[in-house]
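writing this on my phone so excuse typos. first protein, seq and then structure
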Amino acid sequence: MYIAREATKLWRKVSAETAAELQLLLEKWQLLLAGLVFQYIHGLAARGVHYLHRPGPLLQDLGFMALPELGQEKGYLSESVFTFIFISFLLWSFHPFIYHSKRFYTVLLWRRVLAFLVASQFLRIITFYSTQLPGPNYHCREGSKLATLPPPNSALEVLLINFPRGVLFGCGDLIFSSHMIFTLVFVRTYHKYGSDRLIKLLAWLMAIIQSLLIIASRKHYTVDVVVAWYTVNLVVFFVDKKLPEMPDRTNGLSLLPVSSKDKDGWMKEELQLHKLDSRMRDEVHKLLNGNTVDPTDRRQRVQMNGKHGEDMNHAVSDATPNGT
């Protein structure tokens, strides 16, 4: 019986949250779809630069000198950390569907996240197409068959981007690291909208570990990681200032005004209520003073003859003891 009762409560929470999120999705779907489409455009651009990549000797790198090389057989470590960060953030972003405590709407959160990703990835595309560096990853070095791509036989071969092999074994898209874009966007988003201070500290620690593992795995040069750190943080800072702030759900209210139209209607309603409340107070003052003249004129007469005002108040009070 206890399990059935709790399951019913959980189902009600999920149903109510789904209804609210669907309402937002119907309004914001264009921006969300544009962000998802740009993820494909980013992958297409990374695939295209692989055709321009030419292997060569590794560049001198301070990070390579400081960090020991993990080797090709341990390259999964950085991917494992990234996968953990990605899945953890994904699950956390959907926790309002289950948990009672809610601080944001999932649709609005991912709208902001995709805006951060798109802005950062747009800058990344411009950067790695400007100058092609010899890739430090093992499959991008001289002698590897995957270091260069033969000319495509058809446009379809380019458009399909050979997913996921083309993403995992790409070369040339170096400055700056795509893994660090996702990691820093996720960490900064949780830092702002998350509630657990310990998890925030652990998230930043994971971002640092991820950076070191990428360099130690020789998947990127140190400059790729360093540029990602200050570029993504600046992008998130400035884009976040331009976006409207999400409604705070900690006060327990249901769907707050999330569009300019809803917000204007809500403000007009508040203004009308304020005017009505002021008009009612003026009427009460008139009734208590036994006249219907303008309130400013009434205040002048009370000041000129305070005794008369007191007598009138007593008379009204004696005549109507119940306030009617």
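second protein below, same order as before
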Amino acid sequence: MADEDVPHTNGNGHEENGHVPEIELIIKASTIDGRRKGACLFCQEYFMDLYLLAELKTISLKVTTVDMQKPPPDFRSNFDANPPPILIDNGMAVLENEKIERHIMKNVPGGYNLFVQDKEVATLIENLYSKLKLMLLKKDDVSINSLLSHLRKINLHLEKKNTRFLTGDTMCCFDCELMPRLQHIRVAGKYFMDFQMPTDLRYLWRYMLHMYQLDAFTQSCPADQDIVNHYKQQQNLMLQNVKMKKHEELETPTFTTSIPVELDLQQDE
């Protein structure tokens, strides 16, 4: 297990006005080096949720990575063989994604404000990830167009809303869910299929630009190589026509956090 440095969030657990609880989040480590952040979408989503609360100083956050290929001897016995993400609050381990979300919302100071109710946005981002996986598996025009259609709906919503984030000018749980998935679409889509989000999705790119400027995203984001390796390890993608032209384990980690040069979004700021 490796502790991850989380700038501006770790501390002695106390503020001038009293005790600030320390929350530990155990996340999957990189399948390349076993130490840095892995490419688990749920791990990044909850990392972002908790990072935002740590920035507000309602909690002190500790993030620990666990190499699931070689877990510590006591890991499986301590957590009933449940894989990360795992949240630990005051010595109590919270397992399973839905229970972690509920715990952040109901028990972690400030968490209630992150979990806004918006059925339209919830429906809008639902099934986006499954369309990425289908595209990587099928590699046909139907699956590509299905993903593009979904991205265009998100772009249209952002255009109509005309706010920095999905529900307003403040981040919420939906942003912490959507942005990691957009990053996987961008990195894995490019690597396996040379798929790129169209530049005419201007409001979606503006949204991503805002997210790339936030510590909550950049501190939680896995390296491009870990995202690629994540899909290479999925059995359905281990196909002969996938050229292993790169050796991720030999590369210096890179992070795609730029936008297409032809997009001038400064006037939209």
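The chain is about 45% helix and 10% strand. thats all i got for now
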